[in-house]
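Quick question, first post here. What does this chain look like in 3D?
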Amino acid sequence: MFDAFSTALSALNATSTAISIVGNNLANLNTTGYKSDDVQFYDLLSQQIGGATSAGSVGTGVGPAQASKVFTQGSIQQTGGPLDAAISGDGFFMVRDSIGQTLYTRAGDFSLTANGTLQTVTGEKVQGWNAAAGAINLAAPVGDITIPVNGVVPATPTGNVSLTANLDGRPAVGATGASFSSPVQVVDSQGATHILTFAFTKTGANAWSYTVTIPAGDLAAGGTTTAASGNLTFDATGQLLTPASGAGPVTLNVNGLADGANNMAIKWNLYSGTAGLLTQFAQNSGVSGTAQDGFQAGQIAKIAMGNNGIITATYSNGQQSPIAQLALASIRNPSTMLSVGNNNLLPTIDTSAPAVGAADSGGRGTVTGGALETSTVDIAAQFTNLMSFQRSYEASSKVITTTDQMMQTLINLKQ
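> Answer (accepted):
Ran it through. Tokens below.
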């Protein structure tokens, strides 16, 4: 009879713990990246009554309920947050806490500190690789991701320029319309812009001369304003004939800039493949497009998390470059890790060694930028479990009440 008390009491304790586990699941219904806990029970050692057969085996109750995390995939919800990240598949984000421990999490709601360190909402530092000279070395050790919030990208001087235009073949030499000019902006090594003027003059049937000039005010004393000059010829169908496509680009030499920038040797590309970019048709002269590959210096204007955890900076000059990439860890037995709060997990002695690498490699899953993984808690399943555990608790309480009544009856018999 006394065993009945202890058996029922073990059930009350286990069921009470189970209800707490369910309550914790429900409390984290909206927690980013939270993995629901499953409740596990196991029976206690049986005692033998009246011999060593199974018929005489009587259980002594239930052991303490245990929580086991179930690492199923949560749904991916688009948030538009510039630094939000969600993992699809296996893998964990790596973070470092204030005492230097490496922890693991599925919550990707990251933000920046004042000095540009990428961190979780609770202050742990996100781990990954920082770019050097615009390149990310995934073979390097992981470390704190630091965004150069005041970073700049240096100017890129123009190295190539092209002009897509038609020169009107109808006017006679020297007549109105037998000349045409168009400006093209280029960038020097200091990021200053200059206007090159491409001037074309008809010199004969299917023949034109060209001169490329720069304003005298952009040059120091003694500089020449002419960057290049030469002649063009077209065939009877208006296609560029000379310079021939195999002759290579025309070099535009800009020397002695007033701002002290480096001399420039710009390649003027007259062809795209074998197709000439200049034509001579019986249409008004005009430019349909210009291109040059120089950029002015720029500061970071926008930072965004891209796919596979690559953080890209957009600069004020329109350029983009990767500045960091998140590290992911693959852990074969994640259920052995210990929950330490703040959405973080700590490996235990039973946890296999994490395999660290980039997203979408080694079974580490993929990363979607601007999104978060939602909690895996199923509210309907949790309330069903809650009602089941409540009935179990009531039944165990009834066992204790019944046993107490039997004890009172036994005491009354003695009296």
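The two ends are 19 Å apart (CA to CA).
Residues 379-414 form the longest helix (36 residues).
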